[in-house]
């Protein structure tokens, strides 16, 4: 699976089950209190 990030976009490329799995991991991480807005996540990862 591939993840492409830029300042304002997040693109996940892969099989459907891989994308669902990654989204679940990301939502669990956000629910555990380590939540941050998508804009700040994209800014941090695209640098």
Task: Compute the number of structural domains.
Answer: 1
DSSP, total strands = 2
Count the DSSP helices.
Answer: 2
What is the average of the pLDDT values? 80
Low-confidence stretches: none
SS strand fraction: 15-25%
Structural class: alpha+beta
Cα gyration radius (Å):
11 Å
Helix-strand string: EEHH
Strand order of the main beta sheet, please? 1-2
Question: What's the main sheet like?
Answer: 2 strands, antiparallel
Helix content: 40-55%
- Roughly how many Å apart are the termini? 21 Å
Mass-distribution shape: flat
Question: What labels would you give this structure?
Answer:
47 residues, alpha+beta, two-stranded antiparallel ribbon, 2 helices, 2 strands, MciZ, Z-ring formation inhibitor MciZ
Describe the secondary structure blueprint for this structure:
Elements: E1 2-5, E2 10-13, H1 16-31, H2 38-46
Antiparallel strand pairs: 1-2
Q: Would you give an account of this structure?
A:
With 47 residues, the protein is of the alpha+beta class. The chain has one domain. Helix content is 53%, strand content 17%. Strands 1-2 form a two-stranded antiparallel sheet. It is flat, with a radius of gyration of 11 Å. The two termini are 21 Å apart.
Q: How would you sum up this structure in a few lines?
A:
The protein is α+β, with helices and mostly antiparallel strands and 47 residues long.
